[in-house]
Amino acid sequence: MPIEPALADWLLDSDPALRWQVERDLVGAPDAVWTATRARVATEGFGARLLALQDPDGQWAGGAYFPKVYDGSGEGQPWTATTWSLNSLREWGVDAAVLTSTAEQLAANSRWEYNDLPYWGGEVDCCINAYTLANGVWLGMDVTGLAQWFPDHRMADGGWNCDWIEGSTRSSFHSTLNSLKGLLYYEAAVGASDELREARRAGEEYLLQRRLLYRLSTGELVAPWVARFAYPFRWFYSVLNAVDYFRAAALHDGTEPDPRLAEAIEVIRAAREPDGTWLQERRHPGDAWFEVDVPPGEPSKWLTFYGIRALDWWDGTMPHGDAAQRLV
Fold first, then answer.
1. CA-to-CA dists, residue 223 to 18, 191, 228, 284, angstroms
2. Most CB contacts within 10 A, which of 11, 69, 126, 210?
3. In degrees rounded to 5, what are phi and psi of residue 65?
4. How far apart are CA 144 and CA 254, in angstroms?
């Protein structure tokens, strides 16, 4: 069903980083409208603020995944270093051309905290490698070798786990979803080999077999966090984050929603407030450059956008358009 005018107005009264996506995906604005709003992300609001915080050497906070001064103390982790900053800019729709020489600067100046490895080669953590894969192809780097890392390191059960280096042999919901998001972004940008597509399909099947919610071994809910919604998503799994991925994958592949998503969809639907919004349920602990959403307990424009978009897709009411454009 069409979005209610009052709810649409509330969502449209937002930073350009969110507004252009509302225009494109929820209210069916003409291409000229949402592309003009998207172009403003680099010069106004969240995007402009984050771009202004970039270091002269191309990094943010002096580090690849962690800030240069991070000592490992405190609750959570910082979200200010280069990888997290690039993730935000890419997800908000900033044109890669705005970052001019950033890719080359990072190749010259940025090393991973793990073994001092070069930035665009990735390291051993599949979530980090997935972010780097997406950010690299976005910024025009040749990350073909990093793409191949994923089929080479896929678990026997079909997914991935960042703790494989510590001996884990079972896939993780978090790690698998983040890996899938990186692979899909890469495939949408430059295409993929049969091996890469097979790896993506296997990772999707890992989550679908578990209906995005349950342990395969016992049928029990994997953990309470699957139904806990927070924006920014960061590296954390939730069924809202996962359904958003499967929506993007289906649009890319030209396929219908998989029926095994039904229970996850109903979890999302049940979390909707009577006024049509979704509440921010938590704030992932750790330093951020600045907040981009409301505190816990308040109606979240970002989560409401993602929630409505997921339900519109599932219910078959999403505005028509070029599927490729819908992969941010």
1. 29, 35, 10, 16
2. 126
3. -110, -30
4. 24
| Strand, coil or helix: 159 | coil
Smallest Cα–Cα separation from 195: which of 123, 260, 250, 144?
A: 144
Q: What letter would DSSP give residue 125?
A: -
Closest C-alpha to 306, from 226, 222, 245: 245
Q: Which two tokens stand for residue 192?
A: 């993929």
C-alpha span between 129 and 279 (Å, rounded)? 31
Give phi and psi for 61, each to the nearest 5.
60, 20
Cα 152 from Cα 165, distance rounded (Å): 13
Kindly report the pTM of this predicted structure.
Answer: 0.95
Q: Which two tokens stand for residue 250?
A: 């289906």
Tokens, residue 125: 């953590």
pLDDT tens by residue, 78-109? 999 999 999 999 999 999 999 999 999 999 99
